Amino acid sequence: MNNSEPVVHFLYEPGNGGLDRVAILLANGMAKRGISTELWLTKADGPVAHLIASNVKIRIVPTPRIGGRGVQLFLQIPAVAGMMRKHRPRAIFSAGNQTNLSLVIARKLAADIPTKIIQKITNPVLRPGFNHWVKVYRTWRFGLTARLGDMSLTLSAADAENYAQTYPRAADKFHAVPNPYVHADMLASGEHRIARAPGLAPRLLAVGRIAPQKGYMTLIAALARIADRPWSMTILGDGPLLDEAKRFTKKLGLADRIEFRGFVDDVTPYFSQSDILVLSSRWEGFPAVPIEAMATGCAVVATDCSAGLTQLLNQIGQHTVPVHDPEALAKAISNEIDSPQPIEPLRACATAYSIENSVEDHLKLLQQVCGTS
Fold it and tell me: Which of 23, 108, 208, 322 could form a disulfide with 11 if both were Cys (CB 3.0 to 4.6 A apart)?
């Protein structure tokens, strides 16, 4: 591969979302390998901007400062096309769903450039609560986007298989790839963990934005069902339902057992100090938090919110529970309290998602789509 031709990672901003961190870590990893690597951003400032390595070149996409993210991504398409013509990157990695379509349209406008567009589907195409016409539109839009791009990356084999069946005209474009979720400190933390003995009060943890998607009301209701057992819960995250979650916690008499800590930039110490991560989401693409927890040896109890996560946990003999079912979630937490999961299978499973392994797998797919010229 000609390392002088830049590889671009296209990201709206270095925000506090998982895909923002992933895009930056991938860019850093490729730059570390000697590849000319750039980040194209609409905004340069954000919570994870400090993660960007000094050898990753930042280019700001000229964007009208009107409307929200979706409007700005649409309005900047001509500017992106111009940047493609000027800088002629070998390939552009889209960070996630929102930028997939705008990038393939921009390449169409740029015309006659060899740049490959590598998309990534980070959240499900169809989600609970969508009405019929929204489902029809999103199914059509994602199919069109996949056909116009050169490769569509999914976060699990289960997702790749599902989308290949849904979009047979683009079936050969879907490839599963692990995201870089796990860093060395997480794996090192797991090396020193001592398994919790059955009968000891577990330290429970939940991580994620306090919003309808994450199912926190189901989690709190589940914890109320095992209030007669010893446990403590820490919740990391902010969001629109934070006050409602606190009120619900107080109403159920759990205010002294559930601690809300707000957004935390580095969650590794919390994983290391916790025994069980509980994921109560209604839906996810392929969530990073359970993988990060497993890397530290923290057990995971999760809903069936992600086909990829369910598939992964099944491989080590773990099972997910139905979404929005506090009774089932309470039972699963109780079972984990009584019979703790062995640590090593958790850590071994998470190793595939290390930064080094993920960068290597992304580069193999980059080579595949670009060829050897």
Answer: 23
